[in-house]
Amino acid sequence: MIGYYIIIGGISLVSWLVSQQLKRKFNYYSKVRLQNGLSGREIAEKMLRDNGIYDVKVISTPGRLTDHYNPTNKTVNLSEAVYNERNASAAAVASHEVGHAVQHAQAYQWLQMRSKLVPAVSITSKFSMWLVIGGVVLGAASGNSPIGFTIAVIGLAMMALATIFSFITLPVEYDASNRALAWLKTNNMLTNTEQDGAKDALKWAARTYLVAALGSLAMLFYWGLRIFGSRD
What we know:
It is built from 7 helices and 3 strands; from the N terminus they run ααβββααααα. By secondary structure, the protein is mainly alpha-helical. Helix 2 (40-50) packs parallel to helix 4, helix 4 packs across helix 6 (146-186) and helix 5 (109-141) packs antiparallel against helix 6 (146-186). The longest helix is centred in the C-terminal third of the chain and has 41 residues, at 146-186.
């Protein structure tokens, strides 16, 4: 189990460092006021209109960095700071979330694939680790019993599904950011300095998803070696 704790510790440390850098970036660019004077809400609404999308609402949601697009009720949910503020961070986040709405409207294949996996992953992610550890412990306690092995493999399959989900999320997030930055630049929404700030902020936001995906893959390999290695 030492290897497990090392991997968990390493992943947690890298995730924390990236998260802290992301917060610093957003705090820094939140001080870069937009010359066009538009709020996050106004930018989101303009980007929706420019893309011919009129059935999506832009609403405010409580919290910090809680911004997301909900395809179920077609709402762009912006945290209170992003919704009301008029800075480079707000512009970056608002246009990124609208990027997801544009993906939805255009039936972007990676978003469709991710949406189909959401129900299954929301269930399996709650039980995968318990099944894996329980199966490994049961197998060790009963001399590599086939029951313990089977339980562990089922848990590993659930874990693999979550890993696949995390990697499918990457092109969805990167594409939304690319759509956002392209729209901001094409429509001259930001000055060069503001555009650079928005690009830098979204770059660090994307890295949080990359770290999560690599961490999920590392855990999958670790437990795969533990489970199948015990059969040798």
